[in-house]
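Query structure, 273 tokens:
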């Protein structure tokens, strides 16, 4: 399912939400409100650092676990081009609050970038060894599946660099149950995409020159042509990074980010939840 969603449609969605009863609002508050992590208002990360790749202590992920005994569905989060930073850890915490065991993977062996040059160098190094990236995420899956409090359902999601890696993992990694892509590198060849055996979610930005809208449309059409269930949206008036960093332009980003968050929770609930 491909949709292009503009400001009028978003305003309608928000107006209808506002007209619901107070009881319904309270019931849905946990699942519909934007997480503080993407608004820039979250507390410091509450989870723990973990090593999940055998014989590689320099690869250090971040684990957030819900309260209670479980079992819980699991998510692997893949960071942007700058590495595993606190914003991604805080998003993992937000998913734990929603009832998911969230493992934020580390694709850069504990390194992070602080400027464009450093980020580009780290990203290019990782992309030069795609087998290592797949092995990293396979190890992340095994780490989660070996836990007694995981249901066995695992989803994978990422942003920018991480969104592209999530798609690559859907094409070449161990079996999992869902892939969610936020403005990441895409593949358009139906014969290649046919390797995917699970539903795909995608959120993209109309003014993103890196991942142009026509490319997203071809990606969605290719998924449709081979019968892969998908929920692909392009949001007007926003740019690359609008979801993970709503606070960069909250007035513009907040409404589409809320729509994308609600769609994401519904998608995950249907596939891994």
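Result returned for the query:
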């Amino acid at each position: 399912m491909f949709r292009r969603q503009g400001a009028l449609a978003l305003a309608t969605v928000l107006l209808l939400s506002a007209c619901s009863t107070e009881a319904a609002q309270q019931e849905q508050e946990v699942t519909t409100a934007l997480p503080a992590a993407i608004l820039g208002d979250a507390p410091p990360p509450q989870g723990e650092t973990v090593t999940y790749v055998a014989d590689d202590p320099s690869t250090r992920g971040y684990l957030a676990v819900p309260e209670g005994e479980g079992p819980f569905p699991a998510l692997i989060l893949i960071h942007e081009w700058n590495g595993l930073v606190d914003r991604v850890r805080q998003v993992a915490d937000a998913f734990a609050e929603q009832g998911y065991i969230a493992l934020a993977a580390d694709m850069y062996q504990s390194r992070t970038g602080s400027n464009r040059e450093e980020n580009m160098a780290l990203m290019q190094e990782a992309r030069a060894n795609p087998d290592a990236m797949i092995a990293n995420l396979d190890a992340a899956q095994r780490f989660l599946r070996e836990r007694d409090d995981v249901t066995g359902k695992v989803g994978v999601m990422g942003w920018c660099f991480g969104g592209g890696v999530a798609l690559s993992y859907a094409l070449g990694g161990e079996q999992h149950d869902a892939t969610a892509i936020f403005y990441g590198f895409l593949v358009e060849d139906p014969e290649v995409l046919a390797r995917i055996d699970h539903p795909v979610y995608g959120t993209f930005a109309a003014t993103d020159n890196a991942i142009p809208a026509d490319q997203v449309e071809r990606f969605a059409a290719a998924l449709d042509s081979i019968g892969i269930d998908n929920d692909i949206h392009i949001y007007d008036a926003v740019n690359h990074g609008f979801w993970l960093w709503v606070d960069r332009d909250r007035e513009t980003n907040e409404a589409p980010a809320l729509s994308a968050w609600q769609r994401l929770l519904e998608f995950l609930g249907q596939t891994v939840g």
